[in-house]
């Protein structure tokens, strides 16, 4: 098939499929793995590049309001104050009780080692591989973790949908299950859509906006997804985690906010908040107290808004931590500043930390594996640095 595909041909093909690239919040399976330790781990890949500056808003930075323009938040704009410097987007307001209880935290100004090209495909591949560069390893970092632990076994699988979680791919046994939803776009068509749109933010913004308007954010007329798909996934994960399962991994899409970000980011935030609160409620206090949730994205977004009131692919971003094992009530990380001289390539939030390091410290705390295994096998080439105390 020719790699050069016109917009008209792509739209015609999309019309025949009757689908939308922005429609499905879950285009990959939930993956589960049992392991011989007591703590539980949930990894959520936020596909599409979550704007960490919009989610965890550094309103205390002196340059914040001027560089963010119409996207500037903060308590004065209805966001919940976290610590006098950062505030939380109103879309995650349901998580504030977790923040108050010490069960919710964030890590800001982090990224994978991926730089410059800012492709979703490459960024997600590196994120899920846990590698320094593309092609360094073939399997996912969670699967490599399982290879270091004796007695790992798979769980019963329910393969209802399509796709895979690369973070759990590899030789260690895992099980797959997909919620029974009307997927609006296959993974192959999703990849085709991204190939066409990734170099044309204006086209992407228009396409996303049309999809959102047509579907309410969930699917085109006649092929709606179940609005509570994320709740179904969270409940299923919790059911397994209450038993022998120790790891669950799945994706939440919808973070590619090239246009009208004030509106287009809200459904993804609501799904994330609903997923975390459903996990808490469904796990119950005892298991929640032995659970850590790590939500991470392939890269951040530009500091300044674009011509369609959105943001483009960037570099430094934020990760979300939740659960009874997490040392919450804190925004971790070294803040780089938002003055132009401090920005990466004068356009992006400069990453001051590797997104793999918090994950590595959390894995070490949950499983007891030593630092050498983390830095040489699970995340090859990583320097974990010091333990910032991500777990209680």
From TrEMBL:
Residues 1-23 form the signal peptide. Keywords: Signal. The keyword Amino-acid biosynthesis does not apply. It comes from the Bacteria. InterPro entries: DUF1501 (IPR010869), TAT_signal (IPR006311). The keyword Glycoprotein does not apply. Pfam families: DUF1501. PANTHER family: BLL7424 PROTEIN (PTHR43737), DUF1501 DOMAIN-CONTAINING PROTEIN (PTHR43737:SF1). This is DUF1501 domain-containing protein.
